[in-house]
Model the fold of this input.
Amino acid sequence: MIQMPVKTEISEEILRVKQRLSIIGDSPALIEAIKRAVTVAPIDLSVLVTGPSGSGKEFFPKIIHQFGARKHKKYIAVNCGAIPEGTIDSELFGHEKGSFTGAVSSRKGYFEEADGGTIFLDEVAELPLTTQARLLRVLETGEFLKVGSSVVQTTDIRVVAATNVDLLKAVAEGRFREDLYYRLSTVVINVPPLNERGEDIVLLARKFAADFAEKYMTKPISFSDEAKRALMLYNWPGNVRQLKNVIDQLALFEAGEEISRRQLLESLPINRDSMSTPMIAPSDDSSELERKMIFQMLFSMRDEIENLKKVINDKSGEVSSSSYTDVRALMAPEHVSDQFANNPLDLSEKKVIEDTLARHNGNKKQAAEELQISLRTLYRKMQDLGIS
Ligand SMILES: Nc1ncnc2c1ncn2[C@@H]1O[C@H](COP(=O)(O)OP(=O)(O)OP(=O)(O)O)[C@@H](O)[C@H]1O
Ligand SMILES: [Mg+2]
Done:
């Protein structure tokens, strides 16, 4: 049985928020998170947004800003993980002319720039400890110093922070200040992982498919019932970001089609944790059907793997039967980790593909046919293996 979250009443206000920010989904955990954001918006407390990567954390600081008293003031989003350690203090708090090599003029930092408004500190766990100390001070007293200055300045900022890491663990490991953790997490909003959102997954898939078709003026894709069920059973380790990526690929290469379960599975990275086993309740009457469906999925994946193995072995005597090259064929490029790079098996695979392409004078469709893989898989492999 697929355990559906029970539907909750959604107030007019929540609907308005969802509409304004184009947030899709009615699952109780998502609605609860939105509700918390709306409730805390008018009250000037620090908020910590937690949730796995790609789950949609970035909507929440926007809700808090737009539905609070600071809405007419500035909103600045800072990705703490993307700013080099050497410049982050200057970015956040500004610097005086000559305070370091290259500081040719003085500069305002975000905390001065956004005075009266909201700063969203994304990936807050990445802040260096020295910056954490400065941040704690500005949160507690509203005071800060520009880099290279001894003049205390004041600012009035609301901070919303987000992280996909376990901050308490970071505290235990000495990477994050405990006092800052408590200061930031006055109110915590948990954004649920996608695989806990039931039918939201299908709503999101439809929305992304429609958005793609509209944006690129292609024929929209739709989904078979089986594909919809598979969408809900898959684990979505990359959450909404991954779903969008998968739907975009399908919308591009299968424009106008009704996507079957098989087509969907072909575009998913498959590993042994891919299926959402907690969604299967063994004692339930309908569980047999679900089990069958999962076995079917696994069998079709196994067939795919066997096919690929065969193709690769046929084409290259030296390829061993090690399984991960095969599994990799089912993975989308962004999920192929560096551990696979420069593997000797890749080189053989690369040669097979290059030779086949050369035989067909670069005609990818014909090469894909000979390799017995879809054109999409061929493109993906070419991209992974660096074949131009
Ligand atoms: N409920 C939703 N409705 C519509 N789009 C969504 C929803 N949730 C997430 N998205 C989209 O998914 C993508 C990823 O979301 P977002 O960038 O907010 O993730 P995140 O939680 O900040 O991830 P990370 O921790 O990796 O930064 C964005 O394009 C966002 O617009
Ligand atoms: Mg983010």
